[in-house]
Design goal:
The complex is a heterotrimer. By secondary structure, chain B is mainly alpha-helical. Chain B is built from 14 helices and four strands. Chain C has a two-stranded antiparallel ribbon with strand order 1-2. Classes of the chains: A alpha/beta, B mainly alpha, C mainly alpha. The interface between B and C is large, with 41 and 40 residues.
């Protein structure tokens, strides 16, 4: 592993307890800029808890987190988003009563205000671009709650894109997508990976194998194994317990 | 939003203001006074609407902001001899300061706890007014003398107790508040407030400082409400503790619900409607609060969007 | 009177208010703990209890004890029935949405209060105590009835505790409180449990009012103070916690009694309300409750 000072995000001894349950237990996790990392493991392994700690939704019980060399452990979530971490929710959390366009607009307008370019045209273009890349452009006037479940997940991704993040965390993004949509999604992530670092929680092994540069396997709050897709696939213990059948 | 839609919206609001201006010449004396009162109370409702309708925060203690403005203006004019403009400004500043302090404290809570805490802070202010009766004349309150309620404008003395002048002043206050709330509703800040109302965690995860946004909303809401209170003191001259009690905190909730929460014109419609409903009811019975109670229950059961809210949902989607 | 006996008198008075407050606050606490809604009209159920007690006792001539016992039975039942109707007609239709129920119960507050004004009138009317017996303490005589109130309150509290922890009905209530969806999956009739809880809450307030009405009079505005005090007790004691409610009621009741004897009531109320608001701001789970996150 390269030295920690060039890692984009790194955790040191990160832990989170819920009462007696150690959801995340002394985890040292790091990602290099530009990589696509998949985080896999059974339900309850602590994957969502770990990424929630990284993006600031949850506060850690102990340990620390660094982002781009800066200690963000006590930074509130919204400041981490402004530093460049974007998270798409595992349980869809869009603005149900707003249109797809307005959903993405909320994400895009905050980024644009930072760039001080009040040009409405530039903002509009950014929103259109995010919607087109996720294939939602023709549904932009629909209320989010009227979108099919899979499309709501894509809306989450569109909002993440509009934030122009350095680290995009996708939490089970292909859940509810049809096979064709999953194909489009894989192409989309490959494209995103050219500009941003991607951390992907996925149960769909086909997607994982085709997208990930490296895979981290979690179990019971700890990292069980970490390596290239081939190495993980060959790891007998991981294979037996967790890989199961592709989706 | 394109230019045509924006023009249409501003035109609508100017027409409403114009309508009230025209009514000045048409209304018989009693209703003339009622409308002047309603215009000032509608400012209170608009302040409340900003927090309740747009930001989704249900405060049960908003009377404290109105009272801050009312007493801020009343006490400075009574004890310190300030004129109308200074007294009015004093009331507004008092409201702004109070809303900042209250916001910093109460925004640490959410939902039901927020409602209870705002209720309690308002009670504290109410009891303090009663307790400091040496200054505030306690329960009875006091009246600002007619001679005091006049403004010098460019060499001309405007007597605010004159019904016509009073109406114009009320209309001016109302118009400014209406246009401010329109600007806020259509601004970026307004959209963020709506987003916070709809899904606060999501909004925070988009990088917005939800606490700062909510605090701004509380201060804006409190200041506008205080402006209504200060205006009321200056225009109608009666300052009393009943404007700080729980009942008076419930009224703007009722007015906003009736007219349509999260609409710019809903508050004034709701205030006008309910004011007359109560006025007529008090002619029959001293138990007119019964109407208030029934209205609240029926509204929340069958008509939660209110008058303009329903109009917007069914027919006129572009209403701000 | 010397300071010591004065303090004892204040403490006894505080004990009586605490006894009544414990019952009233328990009603509010159960409703919020199990149904997760705030019933702003709770104080009006209290007031109704007192007003109905007055009606019943005037119907029964003869010995005041007769009227009192009748009131003690009839009043809670009537108030419970009214609460059931309100729950069915209004609260259930709102699906117990927290904000909507607050607005609706504020409406109910005004409706009940103003109906009482219309049919009972604006006067305060006394009800005779069932017995007058003075307990002779070394320094002063104290009303035996007031001591009986404390005793009665303890009995009712114990009965409620027994109901909640030892009976099947209580088990259903606690299960519903713990996890509404799982309770439904176990075929527990959640709707009926809610109706029962709401009625029970109202009945506890009514019983408290019947007990207090011989001491203070029945007046259509008497619901507001118990409501605010109950809020304070429930916040301090933690929601849904019976023991917390009792302890908090003791603290507040005794504290209120003692402070009112020595300080101006308005100032005392200001300080108390401010303190409680600050507790809620900085420690939202109250002093006894457990934090949810």
């Amino acid at each position: 592993m390269s030295s920690a000072s060039t890692a984009l995000v790194a955790t040191h001894g990160l832990s989170r307890n819920f009462g007696g349950l150690k959801a995340v237990n002394q985890v040292d996790f790091a990602m290099m800029p530009g990589e696509v990392r998949a985080l896999i493991g059974p339900n309850g392994a602590g994957k969502t808890t770990l990424v929630s700690l990284i993006c600031g939704r949850l506060a850690p019980t102990s340990g620390s987190i660094e982002f781009a060399g800066k200690d963000i452990t006590s930074l509130p979530a919204f400041r981490r988003v402004r530093l460049g971490i974007a998270y798409t929710f595992q349980i869809t959390s869009v603005f149900a009563n707003l249109t797809a366009w307005d959903n993405v607009a909320l994400a895009a307008q905050r980024v644009h205000e930072r760039h001080l370019r009040r040009s409405a045209h530039a903002l509009s273009q950014a929103i259109t671009s995010a919607l087109e890349r996720t294939g939602l452009a023709d549904r932009s006037d629909q209320l989010a709650r009227h979108l099919a479940y899979g499309h709501q997940r894509l809306l989450e991704v569109a909002m993440g894109l509009a934030l122009q993040p350095r680290l995009l965390i996708l939490d089970e993004p292909t859940q509810g997508l049809s096979d064709g949509e999953v194909e489009n999604f894989i192409a989309l992530v490959k494209e995103i990976a050219r500009e941003a670092t991607v951390l992907l929680i996925e149960h769909n092994m086909d997607v994982v194998m085709r997208l990930a540069d490296r895979i981290t396997v979690m179990e019971a709050g700890r990292i069980l194994a970490e390596g290239t897709p081939d190495a993980i696939r060959a790891d007998a213990e991981v294979q037996r317990a967790y890989l199961g059948t592709p989706a | 939003m394109n230019k045509a839609a924006t023009t249409r919206i501003w035109l609508l609001h100017f027409c409403v203001i114009l309508l009230f201006a025209v009514l000045q010449f048409v209304l018989p004396p009693y209703h003339h006074g009622v409308f002047a009162r309603v215009l000032v109370l509608a400012v209170f409702a608009m302040g409340y609407n900003l927090l309740f309708g747009y930001a989704g925060l249900l405060s049960l203690g908003h009377a404290m902001f109105f009272a801050a403005g009312l007493y801020g203006a009343g006490l400075t004019m009574l004890h310190l001899g300030w004129g109308v403009p200074a007294g009015f400004a004093g009331g507004v500043v008092a409201g702004a300061a109070l809303s900042l302090i209250v916001g910093l404290l109460t925004l640490r809570t959410t939902g039901v706890a927020f409602m209870i805490v705002t209720l309690m802070f308002a009670q504290v202010l109410y009891l303090t007014i009663i307790y400091s009766s040496g200054w505030t004349m306690g329960d009875q309150g006091f009246a600002l003398a007619q001679g005091v309620r006049a403004v010098m404008l460019g060499g001309m003395r405007l007597d605010l107790t004159d019904p016509a002048t009073r109406y114009w002043a009320a209309l001016a206050l109302f118009s400014i508040a209406l246009l401010i709330s329109l600007v806020i509703a259509r601004s970026r800040h307004g959209r963020v407030l709506v987003a916070i109302r709809e899904n606060e965690e999501r909004t925070s995860m988009l990088g917005y400082n939800t606490f700062a946004n909510k605090l701004t909303a509380v201060v804006a809401s409190g200041t506008i409400s205080a402006a209504a209170g200060a205006g009321y003191a200056v225009l109608f001259g009666s300052v009393g503790a009943n404007f700080a009690n729980v009942q008076f905190s419930i009224l703007p909730l009722l007015w906003v619900l009736t007219g349509g929460a999260a609409t710019t014109l809903g508050p004034v419609i709701g205030t006008l409607f309910m004011y007359y409903a109560v006025d007529i009811a008090s002619g029959f019975t001293s138990a007119w609060l019964l109407i208030v109670g029934l209205a609240l229950i029926l509204l929340v059961l069958f008509f939660p969007r209110g008058i303009l809210g329903t109009v917007r949902a069914r027919w006129v989607g572009w209403l701000p | 009177m010397a300071f010591g006996p004065h303090l004892l008198l204040a403490a006894l008075e505080g004990l009586v208010s605490a006894a009544v407050l414990a019952l009233t606050a328990l009603g509010l606490s159960l409703v919020f703990g199990i149904m997760r809604i705030v019933n702003v009209a709770h104080g009006e159920f209290f007031m109704l209890g007192a007003v109905i007690a007055w009606f019943v006792s005037t119907v029964f001539g003869g010995h005041p004890a007769l009227g009192f016992v009748a009131a003690l039975i009839v009043s809670p039942l009537v108030v419970g029935a009214i609460a059931l109707i309100a729950e069915r007609l209004v609260l259930r239709r709102l699906n117990y949405d927290p904000e909507a129920t607050i607005v609706a119960t504020i409406g109910m507050l005004y409706v009940i209060q103003q109906l009482a004004l219309t049919f009972y009138g604006p006067e305060a009317r006394p009800v005779e105590a069932p017995f007058t017996y003075r307990v002779l303490l070394p320094w002063f005589g104290y009303s035996g009835y007031k001591l009986a109130v404390v005793g009665a309150s303890i009995v009712v509290l114990l009965a409620t505790w027994f109901l909640l922890t030892r009976t099947r009905i209580g088990l259903l209530m606690r299960a519903t409180q713990y996890d509404r969806e799982t309770a439904q999956a176990f075929a527990i009739p959640v709707d009926r449990v809610y109706a029962g809880v709401f009625a029970l809450g109202a009945m506890l307030a009514a019983i408290a009012a019947v007990l207090i009405v011989p001491i203070s009079q029945a007046h259509y505005l008497m619901g507001l103070d118990p409501l605010l005090l109950s809020f304070i007790v429930v916040i301090i004691g933690g929601l849904g916690s019976l023991s917390g409610t009792v302890v908090a009621a003791l603290v507040i009741g005794l504290g209120d009694g003692i402070i009112s004897a020595f300080f101006q009531p308005t100032l005392a109320k200001i300080i108390a309300t401010l303190l409680v608001a600050l507790v809620l701001v900085f420690r939202p789970q109250g002093l006894f409750g457990r934090a949810t996150r």
